[in-house]
Design brief:
The chain has 3 helices and 9 strands, in the order αββββββαβββα. By secondary structure, it is α+β, with helices and mostly antiparallel strands. It has 2 domains: about 1-30; about 35-175, Gyrase A, domain 2 (2-Layer Sandwich), CATH 3.30.1360.
C-alpha cells in the first residue's frame, strides 16, 4: 500500500512538471513576442561557372536583375544598430556597423567602386519571408561604417524591420558578452 502512495506522489510530480510549460505559456499569451529580423548585405559580382554567384531581382515596381556573390559580406552580427531616417522625398535606412563590419564595408566599397551592395532583409512573424530591399550604388569608399539606402518597402515595414534587426543585434551582442 505504501508503494502505491509513493508511486502516486511521483506520478503527481511528473504530471505537474509535464503541465508546467503549458501553464507558463498560457500566462504569457498576453505578452507581445519580441520581433526579430535578419540582414544580409551582398556584393555585386560577375557570373561565374563555379557557382559562387547568382542573379537576384531587386525592386518590385521595376525589377532589376543584379548578379551577386552568394555569401553575404555583412549580416546582423556585424551591426551596432539600425534606424529609419528622414530623407529627401521620404525615408531611408541607416545601418551602423561594428568595428569588423566597418572594416569590411570600407574594404568592399574601396575595391568595388561603380558596383552595388545588394541588401536582403527578413522580418515579421514569419521571418522565412523576406525580400531584396535595395541595391545601393558604390560611388566612394565608405570608411565611417554607416550604410544608408532607400529600401523597397513601406514606412511601416521599415519600422518593423528596424525594430526586429535591433532586437536581433541586441540578442547577438548579449550572447557574446556571456
Amino acid at each position: 500500500m505504501r508503494t502505491m502512495k509513493v508511486l502516486a506522489r511521483y506520478f503527481n510530480i511528473y504530471l505537474a512538471l509535464a503541465l508546467l510549460p503549458g501553464l507558463v505559456a498560457s500566462c504569457e499569451t498576453g505578452k507581445k513576442k519580441a520581433q526579430t529580423a535578419a540582414l544580409r548585405v551582398h556584393i555585386e559580382a560577375l557570373p561565374d561557372a563555379a557557382g559562387t554567384s547568382q542573379p537576384v531581382s531587386v525592386l518590385r515596381s521595376e525589377p532589376v536583375l543584379v548578379n551577386i556573390k552568394k555569401e553575404p559580406i555583412l549580416t546582423e552580427a556585424n551591426l551596432i544598430n539600425a534606424k529609419v531616417i528622414e530623407a529627401r522625398g521620404g525615408f531611408a535606412l541607416e545601418l551602423r556597423f561594428d568595428e569588423n563590419g566597418t572594416w569590411l564595408l570600407e574594404q568592399y566599397s574601396a575595391a568595388n567602386n561603380g558596383q552595388h551592395f545588394v541588401v536582403f532583409g527578413q522580418w515579421g512573424e514569419k521571418r522565412s519571408e523576406g525580400r531584396w530591399l535595395a541595391a545601393p550604388f558604390i560611388s566612394r569608399r565608405i570608411s565611417n561604417g554607416i550604410l544608408v539606402f532607400t529600401p523597397d518597402c513601406s514606412r511601416e515595414e521599415a519600422d518593423q524591420f528596424v525594430a526586429g534587426i535591433n532586437e536581433a543585434t541586441k540578442q547577438i551582442h548579449k550572447g557574446l558578452l556571456k
